[in-house]
Amino acid sequence: MRSALRLLFVLALIAPLQAQVSFDRILRGDREPHNWLSYSGTLMNQRYSPLTQITADNARNLQQQWVWQTRSLEKFEATPLVVDGVMYTVEAPNTAVALDAATGRVFCTYPYTPAPEGRPCCGRVNRGLAILGDTLYMGTIDAHLIAIDAKNGKPLWNTVVANAAQRYSITSSPTVVKDKVIIGTGGGDGPIRGHISAFDAKTGKEAWRFYTIPGPGEPGHETWAGDSWKVGGVGVWNAGAYDPETNLVFFGTGNPAPDWDGSTRRGDNLYSDSVVALDADTGTLKWHYQFTPHDELDYDATQVPVLADIEWQGRPRKVMLWANRNGIMYVLDRVTGEFLKGKPYVKTNWLDGFDAKGRPNRVKFPTPEGTLVFPHVHGGTNWAPPSYSPRTGLFYVATWENSGIVSVTGQFPRVMSSNAQQTAMGQTTLVPFYNDATEPYGVVRAYDPKTLDQVWEFKMSDITWGGTLVTAGDVVFSGGREGYLLALDAKTGKLLWRSSVGGQVNAAAMSYAVNGRQFVAIAAGNALFAYALPAN
Amino acid sequence: MRATNLTRRLAIALVAMGLGLFAPRTAAAQHETAADLLDGERAYRNTCANCHGPDGDVIAGIDLGRGRFRRPMTDEDLVRIIRTGIPNTPMPASPMTVEQAQKIVAYLRNRASGARGSLAAGDPVRGKAVFERPGATACTSCHRVGASGSRLGPDLTDVGTRRSAAELERALVDPGADVAPPNRTYRVVLKDGTTVTGRLLGHDTFSVQLIDSKEQLRSFAKGDLREQGFVPSPMPSYRGTLSPQEIADMVSYLSSLRGR
Fold first, then answer.
1. Which of these, A478, A122, A202, lies nearest to B53 by C-alpha position?
2. What is the ipTM metric for this complex?
3. Which of B46, B94, B199 to mutate against chain A (most A CBs within 10 Å)?
4. Considering A26, A129, B131, B166, which has the largest number of Cβ atoms within 10 A of its Cβ?
């Protein structure tokens, strides 16, 4: 009996090394804080690590532990997964890699070569993998979804999600819900008709498809003039969120096309620039909220939905937090889609308020002499993921302050700066930076979701395409174009530590632990960096 | 003299033509009408500007507004690239027809050629003499041409390929009007009161890099500074200092500087 118990104890110790990643594990990722099982840690997308070894008091002692350099010259936007000591990430465009999370040494790779026609607007990038069981899932820049054996890097199935020759692409991390892999198609700045599709995790067979532009006879179709719905864009560039209590999966949708000229697509253009709540089993639309009706400023909702349970006006409420590209931060009821609050979180002037249902009242339009619009098309933030800490109750967003001049309908708004280079869609290497104080800059900010008031900010000189990570040690990690990984006090915003990573930060950090030691990893330039406190 | 930056869309193609940066125009873009150019501009704004920027100069090494590409391009080359993209780069294919792509090319060619500006009626030989004239406000005390002159200000060795005559003239008479970001002047004051002023080579949240008046490359931690910030361009206006003819001569000389 004693030997049996001993065996059970030993098995319990080694079980995590052998266990497959069940959906229950993904759903309750917070129960195994040493792992990072989905794009933003859990399907609530809070990008919150419960690990507590690194704290605001000791973050100044962080040291680089390893660097893994890719062979890619593309932007490195992926957030790695970590499963029981093994890290999985993607070298752009579509090489899946398994690494030793403690040393950065490579176990195996799966180099997929996408078709050359897979070239979306903003780089041949990939934002990360998903995992279920022993299988990794990767969306590809030529709009395939590929299942890969996590142990040896061998492809298991390869499903064509959409036709890359028609401008479809996939840059986002897939979202696993139960036995399905759900992914949206990017490419919405071109003449596509975007969609979100679910695939059987074992076979790759399509289970359901939701078009982000309703077809004839469907509600919302009337919001597109003529045949504009056929080529209205509305891509999906980022991962979704999932709420098991309502069985709803949530995705943000992209801008309508053409981006800056709405004359051919009169109407609200549903479901562009929206969050859509879909039944996870069927893809049926349950509710939607459109942040920017009839968008002509490329304010797409390319951000991840962040789910949080907070006290709202004196009672618990299941909400969704959203810092949108259009400069407005939102609190929505994630069960019903009800608009609870919206408030500018950066300088914003394109609207003067909302009606009772949360529809914005746009007040800025192109004029021959030019109309100054805040924010510029690159937004108050863009695709990079924010974070939310249940400990501090604060929402952390890497933001931009910027503006543009709109003088002609259909014209890319002129940047309000003599340094136009700063608005490029992210680069890898460090570049000289000459801005003065009147020009766009990046800021990491913390907001109170109950009021949407700003609590603190950390201002950078340059702009940022990086996101944020917050940990239970009350440290916020972020970075930007300047090429630093920053550690900030989650309660005050005070700079605790920084590390020069020698390349632009185009991704958000994540955290994991191996053998009881907490790491923080960040992609920057063309390399992946891991940090930890000294081993002793 | 400090080179200035008018809106980039009014840049030179003047000298670029001579350097072969523009390939010979071909039938594809020779018969455009004003309406075609407007169509081309609209299509450019809708399709190309997201990555290339409104002035076509966002991607390093490419300046569509000035007809600069990574290698010489015929109109047919450009039409093909617009339609088929460039494999293994972010440049995507487009479903445009040949005619639509031709209009974009026509717009870009027209824009570049229209930005040439007008040559000043000056003499470059006399202008060179004025440029190299010694004195307290000598151009070479800040600027370099070839192997001569200071590195403090912008290097003018190829300024004729980068600035129109109108821009050069404006730089001489109103040098602070529009200073290009890489030419901005920055001043730092250390905690001991030491002041260093120079051309800003870059800065971030934590540090500043300059080239100072002694042509030394300097880097400062912002935490070590008592004061810091941009200051007006030290370049004097030559309005009144030089005669109109001398300014015209200078413009002519600077326009002739096309690199080695």
1. A122
2. 0.88
3. B46
4. A129
